[in-house]
Design goal:
The complex is a heterodimer of chains A (about 300) and B (about 325). With about 300 residues, chain A is mostly helical. In chain A, about 75% of the residues lie in helices and about 0% in strands. Chain B is globular. The chains are: A mainly alpha (about 300), B mainly alpha (about 325). At the A-B interface, helix 1, helix 2, helix 5, helix 6 and helix 7 of A face helix 1, helix 2, helix 6, helix 7 and helix 8 of B.
């Protein structure tokens, strides 16, 4: 025991020194990793704002060289970025409203201990967590329902999900049932108990899942690409894809690129920045609530 | 004969009658309860209908994998194929199928091999890091790549891999020649896997870190008294703590092995690498949505789902053999 105590206090002990060295190594290693996480973003901003000459000669690192705003000018002049923003916001709001309301309704009912169909509905939901129809049957359904090329095709299918219902239910179960009983004695109906008592007490839950939904729509691509073809209905990721894959649609831009006034990367990276900037703006909230959401899901789901 | 049975019925049902009246009472009680809970049922109705329409109808739609699907006749009205497994036969006889399946497995296994251990290692190292503020800053930064969409990632990879891109700047710096990495399939795997690790290492570590934050700190005190060094503490305290989380996530990862990053592959494909990079995901998309061969594509999708299920089941069985406490069921 006496010897062991020495280990902690004696700086000459090799275990102690090894441990200290490891601490220093960790600090440097984590710094290195942080740079790897951040550098690409800085580089993209830098390149999007640099002149063609500097980009071609590979001199741009993490700050703009020979400041050039043409990429952004062309982006907002020739592409429907603003329309893309607007569409994405509308879809995000609708999608969030649907998912929060519908999941809450079912989760509330499923939480009530003596609800008659609790078991069957549980099983009914659980099955959907393990089996699904797949891309094509879903595609056929969307076409048959007449939702093709409308925003409803991306809003409705994911509105209710078993996983969300179970997480909401776990959250609601954390609220004392006595409050519900008291409200019932006062003559409140089930619906008003949900809207006037449970919903206001679940702000953190709604913040988390609201953000999940908003980010899901903002970053969503596959369903949108599958179902939405009207250029007027395109969301931001579809607009970015258009810019990234097919710059030739933008006649003036293409001309500037071929005459060496601008680099391809100016426009592409400007598009990238326009797409991720709003997400980075709300990042502090994302980080806070998403982390919580992950843990709620991990522990109770 | 009819007379005989008629006579026999009352005698036999005398006992039953009591039972059925009891049942009737039970049913009445149940119906009364249902009636009392009509508001709740009404509240549950719309969400349940959503699940029926958007989860169960597509499941039913899988039937077309075995049918000569005609949109005008619908799923049920279309004729059964002869033989019923014809679409599967066509798929397995196709010269490309072997390659597509192999590509998918290769990509899925590479992805799990790299993106699965990385967050664990990161979480353990973060856990060892001294200084709470620094730790929080590193964590916050590490989550950012997770919020980058697949379209942005692919746009970035395309830009970074181009002759003037970041990757080539690095190559240049290291004295290597600039190459167009988007041309052909050579650089696809490093770019695909590398970016996947970049995106998941921080975010994936959350779940392990939260498991580690629940460790009883007295365990560390005991270890210190016993004179355990850093590595011994990691081995005896940290590893056992995260083992259950690790196994469950591994099982889930194995289940998704054939679904890996289908959208990302689709977005990274171009004319120079398309055939080399076909996976089951892009194959079903190409056949089903682009070429409109709904039934055939559904059959391939069903094959993928079955394989995924088997993978989960097998991984779980293996885990249960090793340590039954950590298996999923």
């Amino acid at each position: 025991m006496a010897k062991n105590k020495k280990i902690k206090t004696d700086p000459k002990n090799h275990v102690y020194i090894g441990s200290k060295a490891f601490d220093v190594f960790l600090i440097i290693f984590m710094l290195f990793l942080s740079i790897i996480f951040l550098y690409p973003f800085l580089h993209v901003v830098a390149v999007s704002l640099s002149s063609n000459r500097m980009i071609v000669s590979g001199q741009v690192t993490f700050y703009p060289k020979e400041l050039f705003l043409g990429g952004y000018q062309m982006l907002f002049k020739e592409e429907d970025i603003l329309l893309g923003y607007w569409n994405t916001i509308v879809v995000a709001i609708l999608s969030t409203a649907f998912t929060l309301v519908l999941n809450s309704l079912l989760a509330y009912v499923m939480m009530i201990p003596d609800f008659v169909f609790q078991k069957p509905i549980s099983i009914f939901l659980m099955i959907t967590m393990f089996f699904g129809g797949g891309t094509v049957p879903m595609y056929i359904l969307i076409r048959n329902l007449g939702l093709y090329d409308t925003w409803w095709a991306v809003i409705l299918p994911g509105a209710v999900s078993a996983y969300n219902v179970f997480v909401y239910r776990a959250y609601f179960k954390g609220i004392s049932l006595e409050i519900r009983e008291a409200a019932r004695i006062d003559g409140a109906g089930e619906f008003s108990i949900l809207t006037m008592i449970y919903a206001p007490l679940s702000k953190a839950l709604y913040a988390t899942f609201g953000l999940f939904s908003v980010v899901g729509v903002w970053n969503g691509y596959f369903d949108f690409m599958l179902y939405i073809h009207d250029p007027k209905k395109r969301t931001i990721q579809l607009v970015l894809r258009e810019i990234a894959s097919n710059t030739s649609d933008m006649a003036d831009t293409q001309q500037m690129i071929s005459s060496g006034l601008m680099n391809q990367l100016n426009v592409k990276y400007a598009g990238v920045i326009a797409t991720i900037a709003p997400i980075l703006l709300i990042y502090p909230f994302l980080q806070k609530y998403f982390g919580q959401g992950m843990q709620v899901g991990a522990v109770k789901g | 004969m009819t007379k005989k049975s008629k006579a026999a019925v009352p005698a036999a049902s005398a006992g039953k009658k009591k039972k059925s009246s009891l049942n009737a009472e039970k049913r009445k009680k149940f119906l009364l309860k249902v009636w009392k809970q009509k508001t709740l049922l009404l509240m549950a109705f719309v969400p349940v209908m959503f699940v029926v329409v958007f989860n169960y109808i597509p499941m039913y739609g899988i039937l077309i994998a075995f049918k000569d699907y005609k949109a005008s006749k619908g799923v049920w009205g279309s004729d059964w194929l002869n033989p019923i497994w014809k679409n599967f036969e066509v798929f397995f006889k196709n010269v490309n199928s072997g390659r597509v399946i192999w590509n998918t497995f290769k990509l899925g296994i590479l992805q799990v091999l790299f993106t699965f251990p990385a967050p664990i290692a990161f979480a353990i190292l973060l856990n060892e890091l001294k200084g709470n503020t620094y730790k929080r800053v590193v964590q916050t930064i590490s989550y950012i790549p997770h919020f980058v969409s697949v379209v942005v990632i692919c746009t970035l990879l395309n830009g970074f891999g181009s002759l003037n891109g970041l990757f080539n700047d690095v190559r240049d710096f290291l004295g290597m020649a600039r190459v167009d990495m988007n041309n052909g399939a050579t650089y696809f795997y490093p770019m695909y896997i590398g970016s996947a690790v970049w995106q998941t290492v921080g975010w994936g570590s959350i779940i392990y870190l939260s498991a580690l934050s629940n460790v009883d700190t007295s365990l560390y005190d005991v270890a210190n008294i016993d004179g355990a060094n850093r590595w011994e503490k990691i081995k005896n305290i940290v590893f056992p703590t995260i083992l259950p989380t690790t196994t469950i996530l591994l099982i889930m990862n194995m289940g998704g092995i054939l679904n890996t990053g289908f959208t990302k592959v689709l977005l990274m494909q171009n004319n120079t690498n398309r055939s080399a990079l076909d996976t089951l995901g892009t194959f079903t998309y190409q056949k089903g949505i682009v070429e409109g061969r709904f039934a055939y594509s559904t059959a391939v999708g069903l094959f993928v789902a079955v394989v995924n299920f088997v993978m989960v089941y097998a991984t779980n069985a293996i885990t249960r053999k090793i340590n039954s406490e950590n298996s999923m069921w």
